[in-house]
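Protocol step 4 of 6.
Sequence for Fe2OG dioxygenase domain-containing protein (Daucus carota subsp. sativus) entered exactly as in the expression construct, tag removed. Do not edit the line below.
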Amino acid sequence: MLSNISKSYDRGSELKAFDDTKAGVKGLVDAGIAKIPRIFVEPATDDTGILPVSEGTPKVHAPVIDLTGIHDDPVRRKEIIQEVGDASEKWGFFQVVNHGIPLDVLEDMLTGVRNFHEQDFDEKKMWYTRKPISWRKLVYNCNFNLYRSSTTNWRDTFNVPVAPSLPKPEELPEICRDILLQFIKEVQKLGCSVLELLSEALGLPKERLIELGCGEGLNILGHYYPGCPEPELTLGTSRHSDPTFITVLLQDLTGGLQFVHNNQWFDVPPCPGALLVNIGDLLQLITNDRFISAEHRVIAKHVGPRISVACIFYTGLNPTLKRYQPIQELLSDDNPPKYGKTTVKDYLLCCQMNNIFGKDALSYFKI
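Step 5 output, structure tokens:
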């Protein structure tokens, strides 16, 4: 799918010129390009060790879990806990339906993200920056690691931290302000419910993961993947796992999300009204590999835009003294700790400094 590219060109200058436009990938599409700039061409690699999606392979679907009854039906709740635990151990993620967030809120949130990215350029560029996110509550740019990564993904994003400190309304873009504030409340409630289910699936009191701070921080990422003229040469998002506790993903029906299962890439067909929950690296660390973080990517497509909203539960680069290690109650002589202590900030800095977002990052903290 991907191609080798010459290293003789001045990549740094091309990155700078692209970044200075503040128009992102959408700006290239609006300009009517027929070929993608070289900075977006994914280097050919034969060392991933993961089989590609195969037409002849039977369709494999990530588990879809119906959350009906989790608050008022003890028998059904017990079944759901079992389903959540099995999915987290074997797959690393699952989709949830009947999760309590109204369908119109989900649809309006997707529309809000699209409206932000498709608004008048002079309005949108005011939010474009490479400065730290603490400088402004909402940051918009193309590829947060633009100057560190070996390739550039075909994707624009806005990122806004909404917990533990909720932004003031005036700190958010007017074009998506109201739905963003409404969606935040809904997804925080769902995140807490999921963390309780995960805690009980581990055999712990339902409040345990929340007490550890797994739901303390939350960032909302509004992704915009325009249609690509040469999708076979690039990716919307490169292979990675999330440096989070959990991620709750809302995606439209365009498709393109793929995940690794049994050492092979599989498509994740969009499910109307569903939200996808994936286990992050930090939850894998504190569960001592009981739950596995899911490696995934987004392929580029001719059709677009693809819209998604990633709700990542972690405190990011916020200064905190909380140090995480495998939960003591899960350890035994037969299951000794596999990881040392780390803060969320230190884990994320390790990922950024070494430009790794995946299983390799966890290996830095192995005992």
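Step 6, annotate. The first helix runs from residue 11 to 21.
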